[in-house]
Amino acid sequence: MSTERLAVAVTGSDGFIGRNLCTRLRERGDVEVVPITRGSTDRDLEAAIARAGAVFHLAGVNRTTNPDDFMPGNRDLSAKVASLARTRRGVPVILTSSSQAGKPSPYGDSKLAAEEAFLAALGRDNPDAHVFRLPNVFGKWCRPNYNSAVATFCHNIARDLPISIHDPNAPLTLVYVDDVVDAFVALLPGNEARPGDGPYRDVAPQYRTTVGEMAEAIRGFHRMRRAFEVDRVGGGFLRALYATYLSYLPTTDFAYPVVRHDDPRGGFAEMLRTKDSGQVSYFTSAPGVTRGGHYHHTKNEKFLVVQGRARFRFRNIATGEAHAIDVSGDAPTVVDTVPGWAHDITNTGSDPLLVLLWANENFDRQRPDTIAAPLP
Fold first, then answer.
1. What's residue 147's pLDDT?
2. Residues assigned a catalytic role
3. Alpha carbons 103 and 112: distance in angstroms, whole number
4. CATH superfamily of the 260-372 domain
5. Taking the CA of residue 41 as centre, how many other CA atoms within 13 Å lie in the half-sphere pointing to its CB?
6. 119-128, pLDDT tens digit by residue?
7. From CA 36, how far away is CA 310, in angstroms rounded?
8. At 47, which helix (H) or strand (E)?
9. Which helix or strand (DSSP H or E) is residue 309 part of?
């Protein structure tokens, strides 16, 4: 017997944050997203909220040629959503506001007025009323050349188009859209961590940088990609910013060729160089071919035979001790090279050998740390 899914109403569902939120909600499998867009009617909105187990009010006006549009699009719509949800006890109602709320501008005035109207309708002490004053949000699917410098810079730099920076030292506080969605989803019914202590909520982490630093990081991603390099993108701000940059690549740049060097032994190609974790490459060898015959003092490598059969031979250059390892692509095995041991690899099969190679440092022609020492 199927379990009834939670209906979640999302205004602004086709906007930047809305698309990311709706995608995450649909991934859960236990949620029915009820989208509300500009094309929806008042009756659609009423029906959506009447059956919703959670309401996310993301819609609003953040850019317009007519300042008179701000109050109806922000204050009045927020008041309408909150009024419709007022009787839905136990249903979380979430409003996205802005860190600009209350700052002297038609937009800032309208966002503060939206918060006040929202809380007046639901009650400031209502544990189901939540307001997020979001700083600049960045991530995939944000519209470039609109109101996000990150989106504009990623879009333009990915296409070798110019960007305009009025003040590179201007401070910038950013939150990543995935973290915003995490904070939203945590408010759904059934989650253990339901925050209290007033209606205002924060998204963490927040990244503080400058416009110039952010732009230079994106330029660096673009340069490195063409040089087969990658920045420290495994965590934190650079992880989020790099993912955002990649999401703006034109489809023609989804793939790019690497340079392969071929000789009678086979082929060799570098795939990727990192800042401080070495490089990844691969090579092929014809049957009977031996590669290597050298040792390293400090440099170390990891080999993985992907296809074919091979024998790794080792010799301790100080003691003469010998060792051999036979491996096959049918039983994937990582083989380490050890400093102070000369090593080589021979294709012992009848088919071409394909080997993946990681080295802990990028190759430096001035200090290669690779000393020839053929094994007998």
1. 87
2. 107
3. 9
4. Jelly Rolls (2.60.120.10)
5. 3
6. 999 999 999 9
7. 60
8. helix 42-51
9. strand 309-316
Mean pLDDT, the chain, integer:
95
What tokens were used for 365?
Answer: 């022609």
Please name the residue ranges forming H helices in 163-235.
177-185, 211-226
Alpha-carbon distance 174 to 137, whole Å? 6
Assigned architecture for domain 6-148+162-215: 3-Layer(aba) Sandwich (3.40)
Cα 307–Cα 330–Cα 284 angle in degrees, nearest 5: 15
Domain edges within the chain: 6-148+162-215, 260-372
CA–CA gap between residue 188 and residue 54 (Å, rounded): 7
Helix axes 77-85, 42-51, angle to 10 degrees: 40
List the structure tokens of 279. Answer: 């490089």
330 in helix, strand or coil?
coil
Q: Classify 11 as helix, strand or coil.
A: strand
Scan for tokens 């080999």, then name that residue: 303
Residue 89's pLDDT band, with cuts at 50, 70 and 90, is confident
DSSP class of residue 253 equals G
Pair of tokens at residue 357:
């190679």
Give 252-302 pLDDT, tens digit per residue: 999 999 999 999 999 999 999 999 999 999 999 999 999 999 999 999 999
Rg of the chain in Å (alpha carbons): 29
